Amino acid sequence: MQPAPLTILLLLLASAEQVLAAGKKTSVTDWTNKYDAHFKKQSKHYFGPNHDWRWFKAQAIAESGLDPKAESKSGARGIMQIMPATYREIQEKNPHLKDIDSPRWNIAAGIYYDRKLYKRWVSPPDQNERLYFAFGSYNAGYTRIIKSLKRADPPTASWEKVEHHVPGQTRHYVRRIRSLMDDL
Q1: Suppose 124 and one of 105, 145, 157, 162 were both cysteines; which one would form an S-S bond, judging by CB atoms 3.0 to 4.6 Å apart?
Q2: Backbone phi, then psi, for 71, in 5-degree steps?
Q3: Residues contacting 174, CB < 8 A, separation 6+
Q4: Packing angle between helix 54-64 and helix 36-47, nearest 10 degrees?
Q5: What is the pTM of this model?
Q6: Is-cis flag, bond preceding 84, omega within 30?
Q7: How would DSSP label each residue in 81-112?
Q8: How many Å apart are CA 56 and CA 171, to the nearest integer?
Q9: Cβ contact 25:95 at 8 Å
Q10: Element containing residue 151 per DSSP (H, E)
Q11: 8 A C-beta contact, residue 112 and residue 46
């Protein structure tokens, strides 16, 4: 007796789902280590030796999938998806940063910008909370996250309370970064 066509279809779908699940990159460690030296060096330079550099790799995965040739519709470029105007501002303070399209300098500029945003968030005392706010600011802009913080009821320094007031894209962006770091 042969299996019914519906049974065959269900088995094929289940197999396809398993293959897709096996191929998913669910942790920052599942991705290429090609740029890890840059993430390590720049994280140490801008955040100190005890900061986990993999947060910035996770951010780059969320930004571009680690594609140095990535370019958004709005013109953001490179692994860290930096706008050219923002890159020029960063270069004013860091003239050694050369080409926005070079993974080395793009990563350096992105982590520098993260540090700049991180320092602005003094109210969340927890290091990870500050990172979430910095990542949210990187994605949506500092002013938009401040407005979201003010709309949280009561205003609090917890990302979980504020994330419901940020744009959906930003909420998913920060969740993606966090999920890539969950298994570490």
Answers
A1: 157
A2: -145, 125
A3: 132, 135, 136, 139, 159, 163
A4: 120
A5: 0.84
A6: no
A7: TB-HHHHHHHHHH-TT---TTSHHHHHHHHHH
A8: 17
A9: no
A10: helix 142-151
A11: yes
DSSP symbol at 4: P
Class of domain 36-120: mainly alpha
**51 contacts 44 by C-beta, under 8 angstroms:** yes
Instruction: Return phi, psi of residue 131, to 5°.
Output: -65, -45
Instruction: Return the amino acid letter for 23.
Output: G
CA distance 30 to 49: 23
The tokens for 53 are: 């550099």
| Residue corresponding to tokens 């599942």 | 30
The distance from CA 12 to its chain's CA centroid, rounded to whole angstroms, is: 34
Beta-carbon contacts of 101 under 8 Å, excluding residues fewer than 6 positions away, are 68, 69, 77, 78
Domain boundaries, the chain: 36-120, 126-184
* Structural contact between residues 76 and 141, judged by C-beta atoms closer than 8 angstroms: no
Q: Which residues of 30-62 are buried (b: 16+ CB within 10 A; e: fewer)?
A: ebeeebeebbeebbeebbeeebbbbbbbbbbbb
Chain segment 118-163, per-residue pLDDT in tens: 999 987 778 889 999 999 999 999 999 999 988 887 767 789 989 9
Task: Tell which residue, 157, 133, 131, 160, has the closest CA to residue 145.
Answer: 133
The backbone torsions φ and ψ at residue 93, rounded to the nearest 5 degrees and listed phi first, read -85, -20
